[in-house]
Each structure stands twice: as C-alpha cells, then as structure tokens.
C-alpha cells in the first residue's frame, strides 16, 4: 500500500508541476511565482480555468476582438493621414526647391506659373479648411474677419492655369518623390551611388525592409545602451563606495604610521638638538679660550689662576665658617626668646668694649706724643 501511495503522490506532483508551468506560461504578465501556486492550489486552479476565457495580456476574448478592430481602424486612419501628410510635405518641398532654384538660375515662365498656381491652390485649401464651419475643430468659433470659404474660393487662380498645373502635377510629384527615394537609398547604401538609375529603382523596394532592420537594430542598441548605462551607474556606485572604504583605510594607516614615525622623529630630533647644543658649548669654550689667549699672556693667566685658586680656597673656608655659624645660630634659636635678649646684650657690651678699647688706644697714643 505504501509503495502504491508513493507512486500516486509522484504522479500528482508531476501533474501539479505541469499545471504550474501552463499557468505561468498563460499569464506571463502576472507577478506570480511557482511557489505561490504551490502554496495556493485553489488559486492555481482558478487561474487554470481562466485560461480559456482570458488571453496572455489579461483581456477577455470579446474585449480582445474589439481592441483588434480598434487597432486596425487606427492603423488605417494613421496610414491615410501619413499618405496625405507625405503628399502635402512633398508639394511644399517642391515649392521650396523652386524658390531656391529661382535665386540661382533662370526659371522658364511656364514652370514659374506652374509652381505659383500650385502654391496658391495649397494656401486656399489650407485656409478653406480653417474656415470650414463643418470641421469639429472650428465648431462654435466665429469666422475670422467675417470671411467664409466662398469668399476665398473667389481668389482661385484662372481655370486654365489650374488645369495645366493638374496635368503636370502627378508627373512632377512622382519625379520629386522618386529623387527623394533614390537619395535615401544612396544614404542607406553609399556603395550603390554609382549604379544606374534603373538598377536603383529595382533595389528601391528592398529599402523598407532594410529600414525596418535598421530601426530594430537601433532599438536593440538603445535598450542595450540603457542596460549598460544602468550597469555602469551601479558599478560606479559600487566603485565609489569601495573607493571611500579604501580611502578610510588608507587614512587610518597613514595616521597610525604617522604616530609611530612621529615618536621616532622626535627622538632623533632630540638627539640632534643635544649634539648641536654640546657642539655650541664646545665652540663657546673654544672662543673663550681664544679670547683669553689673545687678551692675557701666559704669566698673567698663571697669576690669575693662582689668585682664583686662593680666592676659591678662601671662599670654601668662609663657606665652612658660615655653615658653622649658621649651625650655632640654629642651636641658639632653639633656646628661645630669653637667649635672644642675652645675645643682644652681649652684642651691645662687645660694641662698648670695642669703643672703649679704641678710646684707650687713642688716649695712649696721645700721651706718648
């Protein structure tokens, strides 16, 4: 039983996968994944049942039929408009070419009359269309300057000139369009420019397919360009972000290296300054010795050295005596204020004794005289 159930489950899973693929293929514009269909089997069955009523774009059969008819009607109207517009522009180009030709060469009178008549007819047709009250574009608007199409029709050129213009119009228009097509063919195939006119006319029907290919190629290149532009923008953003990270890492490395190197540089600079200071001191001593040698003789220097040694020894003795006296004074200060009074009294008595000794000495000298 278990083996049979496994086979049944396998078959069901295979059918579900096929159904999922059919639903996804029937609704390519629907943002649904195979996982969604697996998790929602009833929704999958609903979409599968809708496939016989709805096409790939999501439109029902009647709506699709009406849309196709509307598109066909629109294409036919666009085709009619393009034909009339092409004819109108071709006639305008012929008039412009004639105006340019008149400035460079002498135009025959009949040809000049032909183009003047055609230009007047085109202008009248244009303005009559503008003043036509039946046109939906001008419905409900007042007539310009009170003019009507009948007023403009009175300005129609002479019937004889109009008839002559109509007789030669088709031939001249055909020649103009033919020259334009041959120019376009030469532009598309420069290597065919030296071919004969008959050969160019034979090759001319293939230019439409060539233009379609070039158009499709241009559209594909444009799509590729947009895709490459998007990829380039993403790569530029990634490059800038990575470059910013690299700059931050580089700044960190520079700061760390600068801190480490700064300590070494400071030590070296300190050693340099020490050596320079010692050199300056040695130079000062040398200068002092040179000044002494230039100022004093050898005997004077030896005498000064002896005097210096004697003064230094006396200074040492006086310093030792001073220290001894200061130690005695410090020991006396310990005794307090009572001893200070006795010391002052002793000092006063010593001064009196010295004064009396001096007076006695003076008296003795006076008596001896």
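Sequence proposed for the structure above (369 residues):
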């Amino acid at each position: 039983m278990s083996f049979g159930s496994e086979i049944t489950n396998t078959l069901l899973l295979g059918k579900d996968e096929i159904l999922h693929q059919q639903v996804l293929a029937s609704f390519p514009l629907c943002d649904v994944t195979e996982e969604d269909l697996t998790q929602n089997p009833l929704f999958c069955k609903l979409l599968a049942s809708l496939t016989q009523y709805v096409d790939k774009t999501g439109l029902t059969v009647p709506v699709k039929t009406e849309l196709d008819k509307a598109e066909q009607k629109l294409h036919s109207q666009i085709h009619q408009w393009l034909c009339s517009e092409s004819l109108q522009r071709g006639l305008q180009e012929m008039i412009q070419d004639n105006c340019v030709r008149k400035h460079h060469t002498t135009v025959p009178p009949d040809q000049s009359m032909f183009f003047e008549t055609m230009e007047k007819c085109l202008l009248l047709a244009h303005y009559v269309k503008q003043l036509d009250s039946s046109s939906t574009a001008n419905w409900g608007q007042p007539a310009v300057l009170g003019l009507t199409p009948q007023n403009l029709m009175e300005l129609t050129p002479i019937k004889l000139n109009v008839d002559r213009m109509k007789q030669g119009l088709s031939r001249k228009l055909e020649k103009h369009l033919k020259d334009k097509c041959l120019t376009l063919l030469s532009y598309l195939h420069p290597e065919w420019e030296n071919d004969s006119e008959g050969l160019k006319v034979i090759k001319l029907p293939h230019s439409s397919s060539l233009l379609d290919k070039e158009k499709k190629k241009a559209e594909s290149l444009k799509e590729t360009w947009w895709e490459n532009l998007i990829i380039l923008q993403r790569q530029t953003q990634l490059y800038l972000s990575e470059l910013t990270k690299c700059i931050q890492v580089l700044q960190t490395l520079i700061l760390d290296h600068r801190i480490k190197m700064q300590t070494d540089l400071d030590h070296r600079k300190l050693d340099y300054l020490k050596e320079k200071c010692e050199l300056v001191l040695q130079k000062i001593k040398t200068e002092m010795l040179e000044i002494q040698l230039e100022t004093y003789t050898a005997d004077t220097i030896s005498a000064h050295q002896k005097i210096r040694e004697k003064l230094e020894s006396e200074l040492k003795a006086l310093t030792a005596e001073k220290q001894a006296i200061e130690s005695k004074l410090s020991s006396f200060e310990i005794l307090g204020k009572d001893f200070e009074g006795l010391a002052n009294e002793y000092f006063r008595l010593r001064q009196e004794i010295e004064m009396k000794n001096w007076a006695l000495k003076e008296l003795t000298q006076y008596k001896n005289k």
